[in-house]
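Journal club prep, notes for RB
We'll compare a predicted complex against what the paper describes. Inputs for the magnesium ion case:
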Amino acid sequence: HGIQLEDLVQLGKIGSGNSGTVIKALHVPDSRVIAKKTIPIENKEAIKNQLLRELSIMHSVKPHANIVEFYGAFYTPSSSNEIVILMEYMDCGSLDKILATCKRSMPRENGAHTNQTWFNELSISRISSAVLQGLSYLYQDYKIIHRDIKPSNVLISSKGNVKICDFGVSRKLINSIADTFVGTSTYMSPERIQGNVYSTKGDVWSLGLMIIELLTGEFPLGGHKDTPEGILDLLQRIVNEPPPRLASTGQFSKVIVDFVNRCCVKDERERSSLQELMCHDFILMGKSLEDREFRHWCKRIKRKIKEDKMVLREEQEKAKLVKR
Ligand code: ADP
Ligand code: MG
């Protein structure tokens, strides 16, 4: 692609995670909007070179409908203590952002809190299918295990695309970021938490947790994910307590309950594989939804995100006036 950093104009911040910051940028030569992720790292020549080598693996992954396209990785000339990753921009953002926006605006829309989200079973089926396809492509063709499936790494576009990003984030990269909790995620499978060997089935566990969260609006197993103590406690409970389940009270269809039950199995050997899940009735169910309809659903989400941004801005303006 040959994107040069000099050809980029920053458009605004998208978000930040525990490893870095993502901004929206315009690639001037072809007027394309892209996402630029900046990760601060240790300033050691050897580490940096190895990192770039590992990141170049991402470059060797050929485009796929369910993988966010990678445009390149650089060290910024100004400060060599950070690494910059350029990738495709997805205009509806990540599932965690969509869920947060949904939680903020549902009371407004309904006049009362409900325990429903904008994600219905059909859209979740489509999303799960995309995640499974992306994961099996990475593994089949490149032997890459994603390792970090969570709502913030599943992105949606108003064209109706669902893609996964941040795969196989190299352990070198994780180790060179000075923060103990980088690389720790509450979506990790029990075997991963315990430091055992893991396979693509670790990502299946994460997918199961994610589906419960999209349906109910809440991370299963509760806990306080914002403090180190809370995270450690949660990880301990994932290892020691029974796996999370969707209530089978008739609120959810039998197929989705069964699908989640096959993902959220603590013993990796008994958990379903990517291939098995791709043939599950829950995934087949989503195929009845026409592409056009799913695209409409994505467009509706984008509109709602815009509306929410406007409401937030109005509220901020009002708060400013009150202060004066
Ligand atoms: P995390 O995934 O841990 O939240 P990241 O630094 O990977 O942290 O990403 C920060 C946020 O930026 C994500 O939550 C997501 O909402 C957004 N984001 C990341 N990559 C993209 C992209 N390619 N297009 C649009 N939004 C993105
Ligand atoms: Mg991410």
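Talking point for the session: The mean pLDDT is 89.
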